[in-house]
């Protein structure tokens, strides 16, 4: 599709200089946005690999945690296990922060070293078995893996949104604004060249008329 000349632009030398400056700035802006787009696309590819690894980790922990829970329930009985679960310490606070990736804020979840507030179980050891502790540990690992997976999905969602927005801006500059500026520049240049040709023609004609008039005067 042929680029359109910007409407309302006066075909003067001053306007031509302004258009040329806008072309330089627009091309520089497009280069910077393209660099940003390339960097974010690379980060998205890295995050997809990380997300796949985290998804596999969650799957592995699920296949470990639930059998551990079954063994714990069978060892002390499901009613007793439910009572034990109610006496355990709650989770420590998980801090939700953000970090910057190419100007975009993305989730950054801070998980404490120990997910449970206390290292000591909130239940008495009498009447329980090692299976109970094992189940608790495995589900803690599963919880951490799920949090990391959710964090990765949040980062990917933010990056995807920024990539789409940046790509639209690059396309607008590359396919609309810059071609339009170039077309306008060419139009003004052509207009000014035509004026120069007309002016040169008038001068030559005037010179020719004056020269011819001088000869007629001497005759």
From TrEMBL:
InterPro entries: V_ATPase_D. Its main location: membrane. It is found in: Cell membrane. It is a peripheral membrane protein. One of its GO terms (cellular component) is plasma membrane. One of its GO terms (molecular function) is proton-transporting ATPase activity, rotational mechanism. Gene3D superfamilies: 1.10.287.3240. It comes from the Archaea. GO terms for biological process: proton motive force-driven plasma membrane ATP synthesis. Keywords: ATP synthesis, Cell membrane, Coiled coil, Hydrogen ion transport, Ion transport, Membrane, Transport. Residues 149-176 form a coiled coil. Pfam families: ATP-synt_D. PANTHER family: V-TYPE ATP SYNTHASE SUBUNIT D. Component of the A-type ATP synthase that produces ATP from ADP in the presence of a proton gradient across the membrane. Has multiple subunits with at least A(3), B(3), C, D, E, F, H, I and proteolipid K(x). Belongs to the V-ATPase D subunit family. This is A-type ATP synthase subunit D. It comes from Methanoplanus endosymbiosus.
């Amino acid at each position: 599709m042929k680029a359109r000349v910007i409407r309302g632009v006066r075909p003067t030398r001053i306007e031509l200089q302004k258009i040329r400056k806008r072309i330089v700035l627009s091309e520089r802006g497009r280069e910077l946005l393209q660099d940003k787009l390339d960097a974010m696309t690379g980060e998205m590819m890295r995050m997809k690999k990380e997300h796949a690894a985290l998804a596999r980790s969650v799957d592995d922990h699920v296949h470990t945690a639930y059998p551990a829970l079954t063994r714990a329930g069978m060892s002390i009985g499901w009613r007793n296990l439910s009572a034990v679960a109610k006496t355990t310490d709650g989770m420590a606070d998980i801090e939700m922060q953000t970090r910057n990736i190419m100007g975009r804020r993305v989730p950054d979840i801070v998980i404490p070293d120990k997910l449970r507030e206390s290292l000591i179980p909130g239940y008495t050891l009498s009447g329980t078995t090692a299976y109970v502790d094992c189940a608790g540990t495995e589900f803690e690992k599963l919880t951490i893996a799920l949090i990391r997976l959710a964090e990765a999905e949040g980062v990917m969602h933010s990056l995807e949104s920024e990539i789409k927005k940046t790509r639209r801006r690059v396309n607008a500059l590359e396919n609309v604004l810059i071609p339009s500026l170039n077309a306008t520049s060419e139009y003004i240049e052509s207009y000014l060249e035509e004026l120069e040709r007309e002016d040169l023609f008038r001068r030559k004609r005037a010179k020719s008329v004056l020269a011819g008039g001088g000869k007629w005067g001497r005759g």
